[in-house]
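Dear colleagues,

As part of the handover before I leave the project, I'm documenting each prediction I ran so the next person doesn't have to rerun anything. This entry is a single chain, and its sequence is reproduced below.
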Amino acid sequence: MKPYEIAAEVKPSARQIEWQKTEFYGFINFGLATVVNREWTDGKVNPSNFCPEEFIAEEWVTFFKDAGFKGMVLNVKHHDGSCLWCSQYTDYSVESADNWDVENRDIVELLSEECKRQGIKFGIAISPLDRHEESYGKGEEYNNYFKALLREVLTKYGDIFYVRFDGAAEADKDGNVQEYDWQGYYDVVRECQPGAVIALVGPDVRWYGNEWGVIRENEWSVVPERYSIYNAFKRSKEKTKKFFKKEEKFERDLGSRKAIKKDSDFIWYPCEVCISMRDRWYYHKDDEYTAKTKDKLQKIYLESVGSNCALMVGVPPMKNGKFAEMDYQILKAFGIDLKRSYTYKVSQIGEITASSTLSAEYAASNLFDDDETKTWRPAANDAQPELTITLSQKDMFDKFVMMENIVNGQHVEEYEVYIDEGNGKFKKVGTGGVIGYKKIHKISPVEVTRVKIKITSYRGNLEMQTVTMY
């Protein structure tokens, strides 16, 4: 088999599919670093300084829902070692925030319960770097401590959809470098939260490679196995730091036929784009001028969620437990526009036909069915299959949303879009590449009577789940 044919057979895990459906979620960095106006602290800040008197979990989750987020990821322990839950393994936590006069200081508990109540997913980020813990740098002793923390936070707070590991490391005060037991950490996650994906330094979700929303034109979920996190560990040990840094450069193409022509082993390793509302991840008042506008967020959303990625946006609370009014207004307006943009389905007033179908079970009409298990597949000998949507009346739209049935892999490489404005003739108005889980293809708003989508190149057994015009 040719490399691209092998890649076409690779399929995602159930947890990866559920994560991909989350699409868009928020990321909260909040704690002692917020109090002292830093991104990292030294692990010596007194936890009694943490006093978010205006924190209300219900308000946070309601805000996230209004912004259009489908999940909340909370950084439960950053590099300073301070925990946002009440842990039996350390007193360097919210439990020691003595000046915060509330009955329950366990922020992880409060937010996880409120997310469940309001119907959005809850996830965590956690750093193995620990500038407070005395056993850091002592090898197995520290790894056992960290795994105990991890097991605790993964078993006390219900379902967790996402676990994000930071890879930061440093020597302890004696110069000892802590070697993290990554596989042991992953084993704890799999044991305690088998439905959770492991991201950033993890085997399930691939970090995009930058924090600015600079996005590839085509993002493949199927990539060569050499990009796996396990190979990254191996390279970091076997190669010099200089060589490793060079090897980890941002590559513009990870999955095309040209990029994989020398590979034979492939993995499903989908991409997450991660940005902050501001230049930095924790709240700093002097970052206000860097806040992303609604238009900027819309552009990044289209180029990430609309291009086979998930998008995580950092939203930093202030030290009083409130979100900055500017961030609140921008994200709320973004959420309103997002909902409006994907409400009216123009395709609902039309009928869809295909140049071919594999069988009656895979009819083109399945693409208009809300049942995601009903799909369309062209005949095996249809090298450039076409879909034609005929509207019952002339109507206007500016977006196609196309989705492959990724349960069976990723296949589309290139497509073309045509419209008929009522004169009986098709004209080409756009081209694209990868579809994958979701592609949002924008065109200039125009009234049409017919639309045609032509798949000009694909690998393996093409199977589409949805084609919708908005």
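Confidence is low (pLDDT under 50) at residues 239-248. Residues 346 and 469 are 5 Å apart (CA to CA).

All the best with the project,
I.
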